[in-house]
Design brief:
Blueprint lengths: L4 E2 L3 E12 L7 E12 L1 E7 L10 E19 L7 E22 L14 E17 L4 E16 L13 E16 L7
Antiparallel strand pairs: 1-4, 2-3, 3-5, 4-5, 5-6, 6-7, 7-8, 8-9
């Protein structure tokens, strides 16, 4: 039996796309973006319990978790409120998640038990995201925005262990995150072309 939890992390990303303006009162503009995100210094940690007759955690473990995501994102702008423009986003893409460098700490010794040394593994999955936020135009071509985004990166698992653990791995199910995102956007003026 085991538990696992990814620690809060920072990320960086960039996007390019096209924005369309229209006369609709309820959807004044919309955008289509190609977006890349990379997580920074992420770790996944938890506990392994082998002594099933007790609730004592026997081993603590930690693995490095890196994630890269390439997505196509649709952004819909909503009616402006004062100087803020609310918007919604939805996207789908591919996530490349890598678990590596398994390390464990003994909390309670179990005689004859060997370190599983779970191997590194790349997990490539379909991913999706949903977001809600607001933006402000502080210059003719510049916008800043804050948003909440839910991201699902697909299933996550380690590689198999070694020795007696050769047929076992750590399977974490669906890997997802909730993020607060700050963005700067530059809008090119088509009239200058």
């Amino acid at each position: 039996q085991f538990t696992g939890k990814a620690q809060t992390t920072e990320g960086i990303g960039f996007a390019v796309g096209r924005r369309w303006e229209q006369t609709s009162k309820y959807m004044p503009s919309y955008s289509l973006l190609f977006q890349f995100n990379h997580s920074l210094n992420n770790k996944l940690s938890g506990f392994i319990t082998q002594a099933t007759s007790t609730d004592i955690k026997n081993y603590g473990y930690q693995m490095q978790l890196s994630s890269n995501q390439l997505s196509t994102v649709a952004k819909i702008d909503l009616p402006q409120i004062d100087q803020l423009k609310p918007f919604m986003t939805a996207g789908i893409g591919i996530a490349a998640n890598k678990l590596s460098h398994y390390d464990e700490k003994v909390l309670q010794v179990i005689p004859g038990r060997s370190n599983p040394a779970f191997m590194n593994r790349n997990n490539n999955n379909i991913s999706y995201m949903l977001g809600l936020g607001f933006e402000h135009q502080f210059h003719y071509s510049w916008f800043w925005s804050f948003a909440y985004e839910y991201q699902n990166f697909g299933k996550l698992a380690s590689g198999y262990g070694i020795g007696d653990w050769g047929t076992q791995k750590l399977s974490f199910g669906s890997y997802h995150s909730s993020n607060i995102v700050f963005r700067l956007t530059y809008l090119f003026d088509e009239s200058t072309n």
